[in-house]
Amino acid sequence: MKRLIAAALLAVSLPALADRLPLPGDTPASFRNECGSCHLAYPPALLAANDWQQLMGQLAQHFGSDAAVDRKTQQEISQFLERHAGSASRIGSAGAPPRISQSRRFKRQHHEIPARFWRDPRVKSAANCEACHAKAASGSFSEHDIAIPELRE
Ligand code: HEC
Ligand code: HEC
Description:
The chain is an all-alpha fold. The chain is 39% helix and 0% strand. The protein has helices at 2-13, 29-35, 49-56, 71-83, 88-91, 104-110, 115-119, 149-152. The mean pLDDT is 90.
């Protein structure tokens, strides 16, 4: 009986898997430190391997910032990102340079959000996941943990 209940719960929670994206257990410290210093250390599953490759190949010109790291660190982070990258076909094109927030899947997940929420100065950029996903740093993108600035006050 217990088994049955567990199986039923699992079935119910499966479609929500996309909202739990904690950093994998083998996340190198360099990824948290380097790639989490200016913005969220984005979950690797949100871009495809070839997009991570492209991004990691041009860190000196990274969205107007210099995010360059030494060669060894670059390799360590690249390998980690590619190991845990998402499926290219499910994520869809992410633009060039690739952005999670420009991927087809991201747009689909966010298409109902009114323009004024994005324009809010507390959000500033779609890349600023934590502005709305209060627990993004611990990997939760669940609708229970959403706190859109404009709706908060
Ligand atoms: C010196 C600061 C800095 C560092 C270090 C840095 N980034 Fe960024 N990153 C930025 C800026 C600025 C943007 C653009 C943010 C925006 O558009 O609001 C950005 C954007 C991104 C985006 C696209 C976000 C979106 O729109 O979906 C990804 C992916 C990304 N960075 C990954 C990384 C990775 C991986 C590393 C580590 C190798 C890294 N970043 C290190 C400053 C940095
Ligand atoms: C302006 C606020 C806002 C920003 C910024 C934002 N999101 Fe969201 N996000 C939402 C809302 C609201 C939903 C729920 C949409 C719905 O259910 O229609 C959502 C849904 C999601 C989902 C789907 C969750 C599920 O239940 O399957 C993921 C994954 C996600 N966001 C990731 C991100 C990432 C990664 C970033 C940053 C690159 C980001 N979001 C930036 C508001 C935001």
